[in-house]
């Protein structure tokens, strides 16, 4: 019998048999770290890559674009094509592509080959992102699926906090190619780890594979995808143009410290989401979006004192750190047995919003100045809050996740 909405049933502590498979989930966390680093590491190495290939930095930046483009294009078709394959085999194929693609990047003699390697890595990244959430949930007891997903997604904020700074530092020390050699080595180690520690699961039977339209028609799916688009669009508009925004406030010299605060706060936000998500998914979504909206409003009003800006960046980091776990859990709950197909939609939606954020933010920067960006964010985030608030039956329902499944 289901509990009344908003009630919190007593959930007994998990038995030894129901404990999370930490070694396997940490392997997935390393996969999410490498996937994020694949997408972001080139951004910290653009001057070196540009000098090596004799191209402008804008051309070197296309290494990031190619990876994101491949991820967005691949997620839905490749996930659908591999739906019947055993899950560990699909994950290992994606990791092997990471390995080969990063080896090619590290030793590539030309720009065109490097672009092709980054695009191939993007294809594999799209498949990996579509797979990881469902994989983590299948390894965990129902009452701890949110916590398991948070652990598997811990690699994202860790890569944001440490990956790009370390890549920039190591690239300056040993050359940009050494960074991709390191990612290749990590991918090789992870292939072995996954083979040893991560359990295998069957794919979907041919008759059970849904069409995209069928998954979109499931209650709550479209609402969650809309929240994803709005949240990611808002986040990357500010993240991409944080340097000119801080320069407008006279705080350009604090950029690296601000990014470090953001990354560390994102790790804290992911931990908090993992601790509370199985009991408070809806409340966390509203709180995280509301916190980001409040920060955007403060920035939009022109707060320029360093202490206030540091506090705002920290709150923003906490908000974004919990976003992947919250959104993927909500989407997987709504999709049920079709979680992998729904996650593929998430990857595509994410990358479309990512691309749109750069375009929209650039227009605002050129026409109204960096100070206009936070004001637009307020509207986007309030719209996302409204969708979450309205989706109290499907998408972001109240109550304990375990109670809803009973």
TrEMBL record:
Gene Ontology cellular-component terms listed: plasma membrane
GO molecular function, one term: transmembrane transporter activity
Keyword hit for Acyltransferase: no
Start and end residues of each Major facilitator superfamily (MFS) profile domain: 24-393
Encoding gene (name): nepI_1
Pfam families attached to this UniProt entry: MFS_1 (PF07690)
Descriptive protein name: Purine ribonucleoside efflux pump NepI
Membrane topology: Multi-pass membrane protein
Spans traversing the lipid bilayer: 61-83, 90-109, 115-136, 148-172, 178-198, 219-238, 284-303, 309-332, 344-366, 372-389
Subcellular localization(s) per the UniProt record: Cell membrane
Record's keyword terms, sorted: Cell membrane, Membrane, Signal, Transmembrane, Transmembrane helix
Keyword Hydrolase: no
Range of residues in the leader sequence: 1-37
InterPro entries to which the protein is assigned, alphabetical: MFS, MFS_dom, MFS_Efflux_Transporters, MFS_trans_sf
């Amino acid at each position: 019998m289901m509990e009344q909405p908003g009630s919190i049933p007593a959930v007994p502590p998990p038995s030894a048999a129901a404990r999370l498979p930490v070694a396997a989930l940490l392997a997935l966390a390393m996969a999410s770290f490498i996937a994020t680093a694949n997408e972001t590491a080139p951004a910290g190495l653009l001057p070196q890559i540009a000098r090596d290939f004799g191209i402008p930095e804008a051309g070197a930046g296309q290494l990031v674009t190619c990876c994101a483009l491949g991820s967005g294009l691949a997620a839905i078709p490749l996930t659908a094509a591999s739906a019947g394959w055993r899950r560990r085999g699909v994950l290992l194929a994606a990791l092997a592509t990471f390995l080969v693609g990063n080896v090619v990047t590290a030793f590539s003699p030309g720009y065109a080959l490097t672009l092709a390697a980054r695009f191939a890595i993007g294809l594999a990244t799209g498949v990996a992102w579509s797979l990881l959430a469902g994989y983590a949930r299948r390894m965990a007891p129902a009452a701890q699926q949110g916590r398991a997903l948070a652990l598997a997604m811990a690699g994202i904020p860790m890569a944001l906090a440490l990956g790009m700074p370390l890549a920039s530092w190591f690239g300056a020390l040993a050359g940009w190619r050494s960074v991709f050699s390191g990612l290749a080595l990590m991918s090789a180690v992870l292939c072995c780890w996954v083979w040893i520690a991560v359990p295998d699961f069957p794919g979907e039977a041919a008759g059970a594979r849904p069409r995209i339209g069928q998954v979109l028609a499931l209650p709550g799916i479209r609402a969650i995808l809309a929240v994803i688009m709005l949240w990611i669009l808002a986040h990357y508009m500010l993240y991409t143009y944080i340097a000119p925004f801080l320069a407008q406030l006279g705080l350009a010299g604090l950029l690296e410290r601000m990014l470090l605060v953001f990354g560390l706060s994102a790790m804290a936000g992911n931990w908090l989401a993992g601790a509370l998500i199985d009991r408070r998914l809806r409340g966390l979504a509203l709180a995280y979006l509301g916190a980001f909206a409040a920060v955007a409003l403060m920035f939009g009003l022109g707060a320029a004192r360093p202490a206030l800006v540091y506090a705002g960046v920290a709150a923003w980091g906490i908000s974004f750190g919990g976003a992947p776990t919250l959104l993927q859990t909500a989407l997987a709950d709504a999709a049920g047995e079709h979680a992998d197909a729904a996650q593929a939609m998430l990857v595509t939606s994410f990358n479309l919003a990512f691309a749109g954020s750069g375009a929209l933010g650039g227009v605002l920067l050129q026409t109204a100045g960096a100070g206009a960006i936070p004001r637009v964010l307020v509207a986007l985030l309030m719209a996302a809050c409204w969708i979450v608030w309205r989706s109290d039956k499907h998408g972001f329902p109240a109550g304990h996740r375990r109670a809803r499944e009973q």
